[in-house]
């Protein structure tokens, strides 16, 4: 199962584009520098008044489907 570890720091005002649906995908870079694109909807449980900040783990199946995001 592929696993991608990365850090996100998205201020609340920047997250509004995702919340409003103007941006549907998030591009992050893993700790090794690999780009990872995933649905912005996966971030909803992690939104705070300050935005989204922290270390995350994205896992998916072998075909890169069924993505699941967790805070590390």
TrEMBL record:
InterPro entries listed in its UniProt record: DUF2835
Listed Pfam families: DUF2835
Superkingdom, natural source: Bacteria
Protein name: DUF2835 domain-containing protein
Organism: Geothrix rubra
Lineage: Bacteria, Pseudomonadati, Acidobacteriota, Holophagae, Holophagales
């Amino acid at each position: 199962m592929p696993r991608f570890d990365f850090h996100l720091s998205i201020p609340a005002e920047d997250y509004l584009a995702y919340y409003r649906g103007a941006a549907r995908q998030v591009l992050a870079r893993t700790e090794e520098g690999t780009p990872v694109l995933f649905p912005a909807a996966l971030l909803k449980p992690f939104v705070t008044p300050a935005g989204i900040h922290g270390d995350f783990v994205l896992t998916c199946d072998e075909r890169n489907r069924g993505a699941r995001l967790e805070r590390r």
